[in-house]
Amino acid sequence: MNPVMITIPEPCHENWNNMTPVEQGRYCDVCSKEVKDFTAMNDEQMQSYLNKTTDKVCGHFKASQINRELITAPRENGLFKHLWKLLLPVFFFAPKAFAQKTLPQNLQGKDSVVDYTHKRLVLGMVVKGIGIIPQEKGIKIITGKVIQKGSGDAISWVDIRIDDSVFCRTDVEGRFTLKIAKDKLNGTIKIGAVGYVSQELKVKKIIEKEGQQIEIQLELAMSGGISLVNPAVKKTNQQVVKKEMSVVKEKYTVLNDKVKIYPNPVANGNTCSLQFNEVDKGEYTAILTNIDGRAVQQTTFTVPDKNYVFHLDLNKEVSAGAYLLRIMNKDGKLFYNGKIVLE
After folding, report:
1. Under a CB-based contact definition with an 8 Å cutoff, are residues 79 and 85 in contact?
2. Mean pLDDT (the chain, rounded)
3. Phi, psi angles (nearest 5°) of residue 55
4. Superfamily (CATH) of domain 256-342
5. For domain 137-221, which architecture applies?
6. Which of 82-86, 91-95, 129-133 shows the lowest per-residue confidence on average (mean pLDDT)?
7. How far from 197 is each of 84, 105, 201, 251, CA to CA, in Å?
8. How far apart are CA 59 and CA 243, in angstroms?
9. Is the pTM of this model over 0.85?
10. Cis ω before 263 (30° cut-off from 0)
């Protein structure tokens, strides 16, 4: 069997304990499908099962079972089988000192079993041809986690690109798996998420840590409108002595508690609802911006009552990812800002 790797690009958020037990795993009422339990299988059993099935598989895995090459025992050929039978008498008549060798004290009376404890489990779809990744020659596979600088909290839906082509996104636990081809070894990895300062890393620097869990820290971006104040110029004898440029934050109140967005995440090209509670009537503008701050959609609408639900049709040409949704009031002041995820 060819070596394979199991990855879960988009882990399922449903609770395993809330599912209905069935013969080979559990049944998810939300997804209306059976979830196969792989946690008791070894590498060879998993690979054998996945190679035999022709359908898509939804599975329950230990964290240690994914994002690595599955290890399978080499097949025993016929000649070795017969040689083994001839060698058996040699072992039976070997000097008994061979069997009486004293074991270290800490191993005496113990079975030869290594016990591994796995506290974190992963639930998600394994799609044949996508979820199972054959090991390609010359491909570097990097795994890691993106966290918030200072707090250490995991950041989900972080976009990770290499020269705007190779792309992956962190899961709900901030983890990612990135495949790097030979022609990208001199490239630059760009990491960005809404509300965070983007970061760039050289591929070569990351490759040096291949085989290790890479931790990337992103810093929270400064929130608030920015305005430029005219330079203060002081002159002496008609010569410019000093020029000062001041950047100040515009003061405003962000009424996050007066607007609710649902569903969030929302399917790409669908409609999301903006629920306004106890707000001023009038005209509002919703602006959807990407991680680079570029507006990808802008919609102006009227709120006729202080309690109102507006259904925002999302542009189907906007790609999946995390975005910042800003709502401006009729005076052009920021009324709401928040994160929205398109799937």
Report:
1. no
2. 70
3. -100, 170
4. Macroglobulin (MG2) domain (2.60.40.1930)
5. Sandwich (2.60)
6. 129-133
7. 63, 55, 13, 21
8. 64
9. no
10. yes
